[in-house]
UniProtKB/TrEMBL annotation:
<keyword id="KW-0472">Membrane</keyword>
<protein>
    <submittedName>
        <fullName>Bicarbonate transport ATP-binding protein CmpC</fullName>
        <ecNumber>3.6.3.-</ecNumber>
    </submittedName>
</protein>
<dbReference type="InterPro" id="IPR027417">
    <property type="entry name" value="P-loop_NTPase"/>
</dbReference>
<keyword id="KW-0547">Nucleotide-binding</keyword>
<keyword id="KW-1003">Cell membrane</keyword>
<keyword id="KW-0067">ATP-binding</keyword>
<keyword id="KW-0813">Transport</keyword>
<dbReference type="GO" id="GO:0005886">
    <property type="term" value="C:plasma membrane"/>
</dbReference>
<keyword id="KW-0378">Hydrolase</keyword>
<dbReference type="InterPro" id="IPR050166">
    <property type="entry name" value="ABC_transporter_ATP-bind"/>
</dbReference>
<dbReference type="GO" id="GO:0016787">
    <property type="term" value="F:hydrolase activity"/>
</dbReference>
<dbReference type="GO" id="GO:0005524">
    <property type="term" value="F:ATP binding"/>
</dbReference>
Length: 109
């Protein structure tokens, strides 16, 4: 791929959890190796955003409501970081923003 920007628009939404995890790891490896590229990853899954992203932009209705740095170094192991106060705080803030901007409870993964 020769582009300086890679866009992934919900690439894992129809995959089973095992395949999703494998491809998430592949995307993270590619992004690390290709540091000169920008990777834009669109997801409705809070856990996925935290696991893959360095920065999270929460968007709704065409505007950015929040930008957050992800406070975890790579490699990120979900079973380790998901028990930390930082993870819980970021995930809770993003879920609350989702509901405040009109999202329906249960619609967010």
């Amino acid at each position: 791929m020769d582009s300086s920007i890679w866009l992934f628009d919900e690439p894992f939404s129809a995959l089973d959890p095992q395949m999703r995890g494998s491809l998430q790891a592949l995307i993270m490896d590619l992004a690390k190796k290709e540091r000169r590229r920008t990777v834009l990853f669109v997801t409705h899954n809070v856990d996925e955003a935290i696991m893959i992203g360095e920065r999270i932009l929460f968007m709704a209705k065409g505007r950015i409501y929040r930008e957050a740095e992800v406070p975890f170094a790579y490699p990120r192991l979900k079973n380790e970081i998901s028990r930390t106060p930082e993870y819980f705080s970021l995930a809770s803030d993003l879920a609350e923003l989702f509901y405040e901007t009109g999202g329906e409870r249960g619609a967010m993964e």
